[in-house]
Give the backbone structure.
Amino acid sequence: MYLVLFLFFGGLCVAGALNLLLQRHPINSALSLIVVMSSLAVLYLLLGAEFLAAAQVIVYSGAIMVLFTFVIMLLNAGKEEHTQGSHAAYIVGVPGVAVLVCLLSFIFLSERGRLAQARLGEYVVSTSDLSRVLFRDLLLPFEVTSLLILVAILGAVALAGKDH
Amino acid sequence: MTVPIAYYLVLSAILFAIGAGAFLIKRNIITVFMAIELMLNAVNLAFVAFAHQWHKVQGQIFVFFVMVVAAAEAAVGLAIIIAIFRARSTLNVDQVNLMKL
Amino acid sequence: MTPNSSLHLWLIPVLPFVGFLLNGLLGRHLPKGAVTTIALLFTAAPLAMVTGIAVRFGGLSLPYIEHLSMPWIETSAFRADFSFMLDQLTLVMLLVVTGVGFLIHIYSIGYMAHEDGYWRYFSYLNLFMFFMLTLVLAENFLLMFVGWEGVGLASYLLIGFYYTRDSAADAGKKAFILNRIGDVGFLLAMFLMIAHFGSLSYGSVFGSIAQHPEMQGGFLTAIALLLLLGATGKSAQIPLYVWLPDAMEGPTPVSALIHAATMVTAGVYMVVRSHVLFDRSPFALGVVAIIGAATALFAATMGMVQTDIKRVLAYSTISQLGYMFLACGATAYAAGIFHLVTHAFFKGLLFLAAGSVIHAMGGEQDMRVMGGLRKTIPVTFWTMSAAVFAISGLPPFAGFFSKDAILYQAFLSPTAGPILWFIGLFTALLTAFYMFRLWYLTFFGESRSRDVHPHDSPWVMLGPMAILAVLSLIGGWIGIPKALGGGDQFAHFLEPVVGTPAGSASGGNSQELLFSALSVVMALIGWFIADLMYRQKPGMADKLAARLSAVYTLLFNKYWIDQIYQGVIVAPLLFLSRYLLWGAVDRGVITGGGSLAAGGVRGLGALVQRVQSGNIRSYAGWLAVGAAALILITYFGFSMHV
């Protein structure tokens, strides 16, 4: 059962990602990406990360992807043109990526013995566990991150605002 | 029923590769940016998988921080894309090459 | 160290050097009188010092050595100091250099009076004095070499004094280059000395040789022959003599001082100073003697047909230097030095008188347009005659005693004595011939030039000439041999330094008298032939030249030696330098190598530049490859060692 769920939602992730790659219109790619995000949220749930699953849906699918959609709409991005800008990307990059994925897969699968098995419900992290560590041991990074968000807001406003 | 953690990691690797491939192949800036988000998500999956493996919550906290940073980065990145569009009137990555030597 | 107070030998060379600096740096702006005063003062001062030393000479313990406290070369393997030495030989050389040098300085005041480079001339002359005195006073071969090179430099500067003339500049270069060729020999000899004796100081080298009677031949011969090579360069012997005739491009007082009295005798001095070394190598002595005799004859034959008055004297100098080397080869070192001294007197005078003649003729040097000057420039005539008699070896003039001593000792020498003696005797005949030829052509007969109105030179020029004329007459009387009733004082004076000649024990008084008579007869025959050809029957010379045209052409063209050297040595060297060394190596290898490296870097840079395309996707492509490589290395590289 667990395996079925994993395979289904994992396949959905991969399908969405491939669709992102293959679609020509950016809005289609954006919608595919939302599918990927949501499937990933389910996978987090399967791994016992309740809070993260919720955060994934709220932050990623709900905010970031909406932002993307708004920008696509704002800029009226149309179908992609066919420009041939770089040979290196195809000749060197794609084989490089292929090697990368094969290598990583090989490594992970050959070390299968040392990695554990995941059981449904085996290790569920409650929000209180998460927040206990976050606000106690890692308070400083937390505060710094909030500062980062502030800077990002200011930056976005400054960059995107109209020039007067 | 169990699923080996290795499968989660392999899935993460596949997603990462697709994201990188999309980064290389696509010509629209916004699509390229979305591919970056995909790569980040793939890494998040790997972190959560390892957090499950070692029964440590720090893995998930790291994911939390990645999400925060990704959000901030998305905001600023899109603002930059808007600025570029205003300057060059194009969303084609190949035409944003003023840094050529 | 002497119990007396220090003699301050170092001042003797340094004083002219100060004069050189003053005249060289300031002379351009000083009035002529000031330049003259400086030059004379810093030449008279060493003369005064030397005279003072000569007066005190009996009371000194010899050899007197003075070390300057300033260190020179101090390594664990080798050491050289600024040391000066005084002994009998040094004193003789010092008197000649400072005395004749001072006289020629005075003469130059008159001769160079109208020159623009007056101050430059005197500064160079003082520089020459500095180096020559260093050479003579040095206590080790290295300091002597400094002086040796320095006089070569001064010679170059003075030969090329009229630097606007191409011929003068070329002559200066030729002199310097030929000197340098000889100096290679000198340097190699010094290296061998360091290798075998560990030092270049006279005391160490000669002391070692004296303490080891078993040292004979072998490397000592090598050292001696290499030193001889240096001497042939400096003293214009075969094969390196060709620079001396060309050196006549310089002003006449320069020819008198440097190319007659002092610099060219440095080679003879060096051989005599190193006699301890030469004595151990009979082979080297034989070579010295043969070169000396051959050069004497060779140069005399060429002097017979020259038409330029200074060229005749140049070849005569080469010939007389050959006599000195002949003496050294026969181990009659004292006789060689004796001839050096008398030669300084009469050859210096000959050049000064020739300068006076040229001055009177308004710059003309060709004897064919001279004549009858006996009546118009009498003082010059009488002084020059004294010199002509001296060089021809007629008693009681100086040349007779010195030349006789050489010829007699040559006869007694163990290597081919009689042959060398005969060559020397025949050369004496030729010497008398060409000197009297010069005498007649210049002073006798009718004047063959129309426009010049010769007048005698000012007394500032005639004074030194007169003094040298007196010395040419009486200068030989310090060495009158026992056979003629004298005490042979000169040879005895030098005996502590140079020893006695090898063959001196075997001869007898009557034999010596016979030889003296023979050489006088030869001189008279030469005079008679010259008288016949140039005074009694003036056209005879030309007819004889036409009859023996082949011989005459050979002699007139100086055996084409200059051309042979040019073709065999100079032209290939120039070709090698121009095409091989400059064209192939310098332009091709060095410049080309540099260009190649630069081109390579440029090409590589251009290649790498293409990565910076400005295209994000290509950057990403390379990133992907890099990431894959990193993971590869990390996993497989490290997992091996885990």
Observations:
- Chain C touches chain B at residues 609, 612-617, 620-621, 624 (CB under 8 Å).
